[in-house]
Amino acid sequence: MSIHDAERIVVKIGSSTLTHPTGLINYRQVESLVITLSDIINSGKQLILVTSGAVAVGMSMMLIKQKPSDIPTRQAIAAIGQSKLMSLYQAMFIKHHRNVGQILLSRDVTDNDHFKQNVKNTINKLIEMNAVPIVNENDSICVDELAYGDNDTLSSIVAVISESDSLVLLTDIDGLYSADPSKYENAELIQKVGIIDENIMSIASDSSSNIGTGGMKTKLIAARYAQKHDIDTYIINGNNPKNLYKLFDGEKIGTHILKGSDLK
Ligand code: GLU
User: pTM, whole model, 2 decimals?
Assistant: First the structure.
């Protein structure tokens, strides 16, 4: 199935796309993301946004440059950042006549069938009410044993729970390359990936910045989980959120990881 035919799509945006290299909020980027998503929803698609940024936006609010290493401070920063993040999304989506609904998840919730069903019901209801479900990890309470570790993983779990057709991972490069493009000039963008085997996994770097926690490796792990559950994954450059239009218009952009039933 091409994304053109997908009805329900999870879009995941990372912290580094929502903030400037200075660590402060990139308002233009958030605004550009919101108008693009609103337009795509208006065209008839059902979108679920998985957003990182609680910690990054909290750091921006508190003018902190280094991610705090002690857990209570990080959780307090996430609490500050998450509410700012939601107020930003709310203010921007409402300009396009959309309400937003916040869902904060943790591993113990999505590992439990009963809670999982509740998450699914809420997502369905929000979409029915024309609101945009906005999901993040519940960073203010999650300690290691409750944590997903990164939002790439979380987004694939949300895609499965919500029975989405596709998962779009917005990142800060154009997709999966044959080698690290910042080190190797001849690195080539891989447009299509079939089965995610150890070969494919080995070309992905797991670099994580001071801002986000994911790298290409976590994206492939997320895509592998999606593939197993028959969901297509697209990794595209989110530095220009309008790239989403290109993807939905059927242009060849980024890396498409085929869903399970399309594997030969
Ligand atoms: N949930 C974290 C946050 O909102 C981000 C995790 C990630 O970067 O993948 O700050």
Answer: 0.94
